[in-house]
Design goal:
By secondary structure, this protein is α/β, with parallel strands linked by helices. About 55% of the residues lie in helices and about 5% in strands. It contains 12 helices and 4 strands. Strands 3-2-1-4 form a 4-stranded parallel beta sheet, with helices on both faces. Strand 1, helix 2 and strand 2 form a beta-alpha-beta unit. It is globular and about 55 Å long.
């Protein structure tokens, strides 16, 4: 983990210097991914702006985010923070769009929260001459596509996208991030309650990592039974459905 932390820290620093940007901006959610990435950002020595962007946020998420920012500022003088309450912005959006009883309504609003946060991150990035640092890990970004397109998926760099969730936890332990974050159930925080990622995905990250590795080895659903088959089929379904998030935008090529 020491080697991994050093590699990512140097990679971030070198990228920022070559791009000619002045610093890094990252959203802090109270989860392990943003805690790990923000700590790696802080380690670069570059100005690092940590943004809290609550939208009807569960109190547990808010308290963990605040605890982590305090942890960073106590250890790194290059870290600053700001809280931008997006709740009234989101509420006004809800008032302005037409009412609907479609069963996709809740998910559409959840993704809207992520996109409002992306807009806010890029506002401050543009204001300060910074880049937006992403917090997606390998299983989320390239396994099951568990992120919002042009929301938390809208970033300039993805420093932990080659790490499995289990590796992110190990890195978090090495970096000494607060225990409350390491022990908390992973949650995307897009619904204003404490529902976990597992509640939404119907499988744990350890199970999904296993399925991803099995897929890479060429395994099929018929190779498994019971819970293993169920998890493998969950992974396969999500991976297929979310390919549009993982692949480059299709371009209509015109022969000249």
């Amino acid at each position: 983990m020491e080697n991994t932390a050093n590699i990512i820290t140097e990679w971030l620093k070198n990228y920022a210097e070559k791009a000619g940007v002045k610093g890094l901006v990252i959203g802090i959610s109270g989860g392990v991914d943003s805690a790990v990435v923000s700590t790696l950002c802080a380690r670069t020595g570059l100005p690092t702006l940590c943004l809290e962007m609550p939208i009807h946020q569960a109190e547990s998420h808010v308290s963990r985010a605040e605890e982590h920012i305090a942890f960073l500022k106590d250890r790194y003088t290059n870290v600053s923070n700001m809280r931008v309450d997006l709740t009234p912005v989101f509420d006004q959006f809800v008032v302005q769009v037409p009412l609907t009883d479609k069963n996709t309504y809740e998910m559409a609003l959840a993704n809207t929260r992520a996109r409002l946060r992306m807009t806010t991150l890029y506002y401050f990035a543009g204001l300060e001459g910074y880049i937006v640092v992403g917090t997606g890990n390998k299983i989320e970004d390239f396994g099951v596509g568990f992120f919002t397109k042009y929301g938390d998926g809208g970033v300039d760099v993805s420093p932990i996208a080659d790490l499995m969730k289990s590796e992110v936890y190990k890195l978090g332990e090495y970096l000494g991030i607060p225990k409350s974050i390491l022990k908390a159930k992973p949650s995307d925080g897009l619904f204003g309650d404490d529902r976990s990622d597992e509640d939404q995905l119907k499988a744990t990250y350890d199970e999904l990592e296993w399925a991803m590795l099995q897929t890479e080895q060429g395994k099929k659903a018929d190779d498994f039974s019971g819970r293993e088959r169920e998890v493998f089929e969950i992974y396969t379904r999500l991976n297929r459905a979310n390919q549009h998030k993982m692949q480059p935008i299709p371009i209509c090529k015109i022969k000249k």
